[in-house]
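User: Show me a protein chain along with its predicted structure.
Assistant: Here is one chain, sequence first, then structure tokens.
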Amino acid sequence: MAVDVHYTCVIPKRNEDYQIPTFAEDYEVPPTPAYNDGIKSHDHMYCPAHKEWCKNRWTFYMPFDLHFRCDSKHHMLGSDTHGDKLQDLFEISPNWWNDELPEIQITYNTLFWTNAKNVWLEYTGHPTVAQHGFSVVPGTFPMSSWMRSLPIGIIPHRIDDDIYIKRGTPIFHAKFVRGKDTFKLTRKTPPHDKIVQIKQDQELKHWAPFKSWDLIMKRESKCPFRFLS
């Protein structure tokens, strides 16, 4: 039997409790199994190694058109598609331009949750995003032990270049891992206890920066079913 994983997508400044997805289900571009978005004529699509890589991996898409640029002269972010909603769509940290290329978070957040134990989430950029002029910041963590929503973290390849992301553009992959289990992904709002957990876990990041990973590992080590993974 497949392990159930659920997701919801929100712009969190408008929907702090994650109970109301930003877009209606019949408008949101639904995720698809990663294997389905490949070019079927390519030889690697029939390779067992590629099929294994695609297993339990879903592709997520941009739900609206977005055009923006990073102004290196003024260290500013500008957008002419959602100018009046700029603060809702982007999260800019105080150190966002410390390096040669800035790091930007598009705050169309995806929250994954499950009631299963020992499930890890791997978050990676879709292989085709490079052609749009940016890279997606990857990461992995045990989603059974840590509740957090995932913005789209990107790094532009060149500053002062316009970045266009059209609705329906593949943006990132989400892969779920627990031993040899298979997974079923469905859109569903989280229950009250999950909302409490995500708010507590988010507050820890604000009040005790860089302490969350130690707590995650502590929670993982206490799981009574860890030996089954």
